[in-house]
Amino acid sequence: MQNDNIIEFHNVSYRYEADDGEEKLPLVVNNVSLNFKKGDFIAILGHNGSGKSTLAKLSNSILIPESGKVLVNGMDTADEDLSYDIRRTVGVVFQNPDNQIVATIVEEDVAFGPENLGVPPEEIRKRVDNALKAVGMYEYRGHEPHKLSGGQKQRVAIAGIIAMLPECIVLDEPTAMLDPRGRKEVMDTCLKLNREMGMTVVFITHFMEEAVLANRVIVMDDAKIILDGTPKQVFHNSELLKKVGLDVPETAKLANDLRRSGAPLPEDILSADEFSDEILKLLRRK
Questions:
Q1: Are residues 193 and 33 in contact, defined by beta-carbon separation less than 8 angstroms?
Q2: What distance in Å separates the CA atoms of residue 98 and residue 209, rounded to the nearest whole number?
Q3: d(CA 249, CA 208)
Q4: What is the mean predicted confidence (pLDDT) over 138-154?
Q5: Could you report the per-residue pLDDT of 99-142, keeping only the tens digit for each?
């Protein structure tokens, strides 16, 4: 029977070691069971320290569970002999692109991963060009990365992962250090990878408006999963979200304010497009 899950967490727990090596720190992931289906776009929300970044590192054997198992296409991340294949399957992009860019020319940086995988030069050329086109950075292939904007650097970092042809890309707060334009560039890139190239995308963020674009939203708090569903299902739990230091998207708040003022708007408006559509309907009725 075919398994539709690309990543599976089975009763996974993890804690970091204290500096002195003796004190036992609290669990940052506590008995989490979770599956990521192939082709999904999943957003993971949670305040700092909730465990979401640790989940990203557990997903491709950067970290190994203290207890439980993480499987990537059925491969156990605790098996060191499989770590090469696991990291080819699941690529991780971190918050600060400067920490991932290693070369002085954009195309050389994107080629770094495939070169380390032993990919033949002619195939590397193809992969680099395709990856840069996928993220809209092909015209910048001869540029120096340090002269690019934050959003452009992050797209180069994403291209570096894409060039290794992973089935899944996990992005750990990739827009946290970017301005609104850079955030939009990165989000558009991730949506393209998912919707046009069929890549599984796991997007860790603290921006509610970004989570709305996913087809599944997971909320973490205190090392555990407290909500898991579609954006509409998750953001319907506004009181619980507020209790754990999160909120609903700004568009949803505006729609709620208008509804309280008497505007006959639906209760599940989340995106700007939905909001504008409903306002246009109201105006046409008048």
A1: no
A2: 25
A3: 5
A4: 92
A5: 888 899 999 999 998 988 888 999 999 999 999 998 889 999 99
What value, to the nearest 5°, has the Cα angle with vertex 164 and ends 64 and 101? 80
Q: CA angle at residue 149 from 213 to 90, to 5 degrees?
A: 50
3-state secondary structure the chain: CCCCEEEEEEEEEECCECCCCCCECCCCEEEEEEEEECCCEEEEECCCCCCHHHHHHHCCCCCCCCEEEEEECCEECCCHHHHHHHHHHEEEECCCHHHCCCCCCHHHHHHHHHHHCCCCHHHHHHHHHHHHHHCCCHHHCCCCHHHCCHHHHHHHHHHHHHCCCCCEEEEECCCCCCCHHHHHHHHHHHHHHHHCCCCEEEEECCCHHHHCCCCEEEEEECCEEEEEECHHHHHCCHHHHHHCCCCCCHHHHHHHHHHHCCCCCCCCCCCHHHHHHHHHHHHHHC
The answer to whether 168 and 139 are in contact (CB under 8 A) is: no
What global pTM score does this model have? 0.87
Instruction: Give the pLDDT confidence of 173-204 residue by residue, as tens digits.
Output: 888 888 888 888 889 989 988 998 899 999 99
Q: What is the CA radius of gyration of the chain?
A: 20
Judging by beta carbons within 10 Å of its beta carbon (0-12, 13-18, 19+), is residue 23 exposed, middle or buried?
Answer: exposed
**Position 153: which residue type?**
K
For residues 57 and 283, give the distance between their C-alpha atoms in angstroms, rounded to a whole number. 48
Q: How far apart are CA 91 and CA 181, in angstroms?
A: 24
